[in-house]
Amino acid sequence: MVFNKFTGARGKSGSNDANAEYIAYLRNIFEKENVSFQMAELGKVDLGGGGTIAYMTALYGMNVIDAGVAVMNMHAPWECTSKADVYETKRGYNAFLKYVGEIK
Fold it and tell me: What would the pLDDT profile of 89-103 be if each residue is shown by its tens digit?
């Protein structure tokens, strides 16, 4: 499972940035369920991209982070992913849904 802490452009008005407490909350869930994850970056600074809507909900104070399957060469003719990454992402989503709101 891959987490992208920051996405968007134009500073605070068009971006989101997961705070350290929320990342610690997620790490606690995944440690409890032994889910493998990694942190990632998306593109060049302040150019946007990713097609995410996280920044819209972040404007209302919601804790958000982009999460998904690791893909190499996304949207290229030969994109590639590992079935282990797909499996860990499934496990990560299940763990999140199992513990959301419980672990502090």
Answer: 999 999 999 998 775
3-class state of residue 74 by DSSP:
coil
Angstrom CA distances, 41 to 60, 61, 87, 94, 98, stand at: 23, 22, 21, 24, 27
pLDDT tens digit string along 18-64?
Answer: 788 888 999 999 999 999 999 887 665 555 555 567 777 777 878 88
Global pTM reads 0.77
Between the CA of residue 81 and those of 36, 49, 63, what are the distances in Å? 15, 20, 27
Distance CA 15, CA 5 (A): 11
9: three-class secondary structure by DSSP: coil
